[in-house]
Protein 1
Amino acid sequence: VGGITNSPQHRRVWTAAYYQITGMKLADSLGGRGLARLRLNNWVIYDLYGANDMRNSPWNFRRRYTFNDPARPATFGQPVPYVGFDTIFRIPPHTTKWFQFDPNDEFGFAMIKDIILMRLGETYLFLAEAQLKQNRAADAATTLNLLRARSNAGAVTAAQVTLDFILDERVRELVGEENRRMTLMRTKTLVDRAVKYNSVSPVNQMTGIAAKHLLMPIPQSEIDLNKNAKLEQNQGY
């Protein structure tokens, strides 16, 4: 889907607000003007990728910044330090998939980069999931290894392929692209994985998640509009 100019939020959501740090200026090489509205959890940042997986390279995940304002020679060219318990907003590690900068639009109103709805890598992931459900784990491993070989991630065996592994691989391949909530709802793993991977937060601890949160509540206005048959509310609401 082509980029548009009505203020879509992908860049703002995923790119850090590094320019708020003294000694930092907006730059195309740093992704333009982001707001860091989403931060990847610690599992993705520290544990998800293997050592040689190219999907975790410095060009795909930015983890380090260098002061880039020549008007401040004392710091220019020096590494930006990580100060405090968690630099969650200004320089969190983040995907570079949505980098964009237009010198005529420094504030970043427009989003001219194409929006990814689906690509071949996800098709392979769907195929592997279907093969696993057909008890064809060896075929699923072969399919996954097509992606992993491209990324220098190392081959997996049939014994390693589980639904959890495929869901992990979806993050490695599609972080910042897929509608993750829909994937976890579809596979009925939303609550379990949210508890497993988000229970320890550097800022706000996750509390209160329960089985009912697999689905969202149906608005009462929609229930009231259903005149010819009773529309049941989702369980737990």
Note: The beta strands are 61-62, 94-95.
Protein 2
Amino acid sequence: MSEQSKVSRRDVLKLGSAGALGLAGSYFINNLAPFSSSVKAESNNKNHSNMDHSQMVGDITKTSGYKMAEQLLTTFDYGKASKLPNGQTLREYEVVAIDKEIEIAKGIKFPGWTYNGTIPGPTFRCTEGDLLRFHFENQGSHPHSIHFHGIHPTEMDGLEPIAPGQKFTYEFVAKPYGLQVYHCHVLPLARHIHKGLYGNFIIDPKTPREPALELNMVMNGYDLDLDGENDFYTVNGYAFAFMNHPIKVKKDQLVRIYLSNLTEFDLINSFHLHANYFTYYPTGRNDNPSQFTDTVMQCQGERGILEMRFPYKGKYMFHAHVSEFAELGWMGFIEAE
């Protein structure tokens, strides 16, 4: 590939966000073999200085990629629950690693390695003290594993690769309560995480939290040309997912966001909320020092819970407070009604 023909993420930024989708789509689809050549991205070279935020994504169609991001926002996998003779709750989960092409922006697909067919993977949920069994089957083309953050026996830590076609059951007691993450831990680690093998893992406290509208958000990135730099940044896997389809909440309703950062190739990511503040609980622990702020930063694997109420009706923008990340897809709206 010549230097003249290569499109960098800096080139994409020069066009602004709407033009970015058109330029990046046409480049990656036409030049990278793993991507579907039958899909065409629209070309829209509007100058960024002439754009307003409502025009950042020209298409309001709910594509398959958007539907995935929307589903992951409010869907929690509690597993199949039963009671053991000692009264303890047993939860069993079915997890399949599978290679799957994922739509990450309009007209742009990514050859992902997934848990259960989505990027990020499902949001597993349980209560502290539950006995958990994750029945893992590797239907992918490479060895994979599941490494859970939390406290558990080392033999359940997910360091051993599970070969294609093989199965393994991870079993441990859920602790401590809070927001955990999980991801593949097979080497090369950066590749397995970047390709999509990660997700959130919520362990609820035994004393339930205050009722709220609960939202799951995983910050991530995609490197399409394999140069070690991300070309798109998203929440829940799809660029600009909640720009044209804002997340609907009620005025003064308590909103709780389970936020994690699984972005590869960048040291930090961040979450910034316009026109409002939130309380941030690192690792989702009530006993951790909290912050009352409008911006938090997370390194890879870091996570926390954000709680907020919206005192006024209207659209509240949220995005990464790294301008490059925002302009390359990590941006959306929450609309209070």
Note: Residues 1-7, 14-20, 22-58 have pLDDT under 50 and may be disordered.
Protein 3
Amino acid sequence: MISQVPDYVYQHKVVDYDKNMPLVFIGGMPRSGTTLMRAMLDAHPDVRCGQETRIIPRILGMRANWLKSPKERVRLDEAGVTNEVINEAITQFILEVIVKHGKPARFLCNKDPFTLKSIKYLKELFPNAKFILMLRDGRATAHSIISRKVTISGFDINSYSTRDVLTKWNRAIETMFVQCNEVGSKNCLPVHYEQLVLHPAAETRNILKFLSVPWNEAVLNHEKHMTNISLSNVEKSTDQVQRPLYLDALTSWFGKLPDDVMRDMATIAPMLRRLGYDPNDPTPEYGIPDPFVLNKSRTAR
């Protein structure tokens, strides 16, 4: 196992890195605030997340496909490619990508939304890892995915099928939410996007406490630290995350979803109610924003 690499230096010291590091994984459904969450953490001087790697969820998906195929499983076993070998290889692969795709930091994190479909497996590989699961009203997420033409593998975006997107949102977020609960509250923290936007100070204090990261007010003003935050030109949220916290996204879906979908919402997306959203309310009240947020919204206009 690689335990020390000369070109990984933090504060002028060579840093050891291994699977026991306190890594942070941020995930959830795309368009649920994952980019905002990682930008806020990236503004912290002790944390580095960086852009989506895109390759980490793919390697996890490959492993999942191997396990689904009994024939492939037999072939791998016959070749001596046991679960132990695969797990060690994937551990090192993920570790190398997270450590080396950005600048060194005291706390390293990864933000690839669908990585959290593998929370339980990642917890086995990285015993000290913690997970932040971003949750958002699925109706807002679906509207955002379709209106911004976000490409997601397996999602029918071209037909603008809100029903299909919501159905797949429900399936994906249920997988992540169940696993988040299974690894326990000490390891996985669900964060509602709406509450992060409305009450950023309280939410980020709770998040940093969960991660055992010292408090720093920079997380409340991520837009002022963009020179220190690496952004990707191919991520759809890049333009929005450069702005201060804003409230428009909370209600932009109101009145935009098809009537038949709204009528069947409780059946299409039962996870809405499970996550605390009322599927029958077409214009939900998510809460009253803090004065700090209102002031930011005014000055940003």
Note: The two ends are 52 Å apart (CA to CA).
Protein 4
Amino acid sequence: MVTPSNPTGTVLPADQVESLYELARQNNVALILDETYNAFLPPQQLPHHLFSKDAWGETFIHIGSFGKTFALTGYRAGALVASRKLIHHALKVQDSMVVCQPRITQHAIAYGCRELSDWVDQNSVWVKHPWPTLTGRQAARKLADEANLICLPGEVFGPGLEGYLRLAFGNVSQHEIPQAVERFLVY
């Protein structure tokens, strides 16, 4: 399972993730949860409570990415969290692909884990819109109609994102970004 999903941004609710965990546990299969984009969840929203369960590691395999969290894209630096038994088997695959990350990448990740939680929060893909009486959909419509800016309302990505907008700059050239930001700030 992938949550939050890319490219849709859909987040599986915690109760659904935990139901899938119980189903996997009852059937003696692993639940592999790719949480590469969990740093982009709204502040204070926990994706699940699976790590607090007894013997979670025998059923749950967590995949994470430092590349997305700390803007180390291209380094293919991530983490696999599971029981020793499952990690042992995963290392067989990893050893046949690459021995380890370069030391510089390992140091960057260690620094990020210790020092960059505030930076991660400030560089989120979510922006809280400034109109408390408007829903995210209404705010997105206002920006489209009045500022010629297209963004997505947070609520389409799941609960807890009401009042937020998701911005993307994939189709904007570098010299157009300041103009887009200026239009956004005016409204």
Note: DSSP finds seven helices and six strands in the chain.
